[in-house]
Amino acid sequence: MADRGRQECRQPRAGSVKAPIAPNELRARAGAKPPVRSRRPLARRIAVAVAMKLALLVVLYLLFFSPSHRPRIDDAAVDEHLLPTR
Which of 45, 46, 49, 27 is nearest to 36 (CA)? Predict the structure, then answer.
C-alpha cells in the first residue's frame, strides 16, 4: 500500500476490446489486391533527379546559348577585326 499515488493498470477482459484491423488486412479480407509499390524507390528518385537536371540544362541552353543569341559573323567583319585600317 506504499504506492497509493500510482494507479493500477488493469488488463481488459478477453473479448471485451478488439484490436484494430490493419488496412491491408481489410483489403485481404475483401479480396482486393494490395497496392503495387515500386521495388526500387532509390532508382526512381535518381531517375527523376537526372531528368530534372536534363530539363534544366535544356532550358538554360535555350535561354542563353541558342543560335538566336549568337552574333552574326561575316567575312567583312572578320577582316575588319583582324586587319584594322588606319
Answer: 27
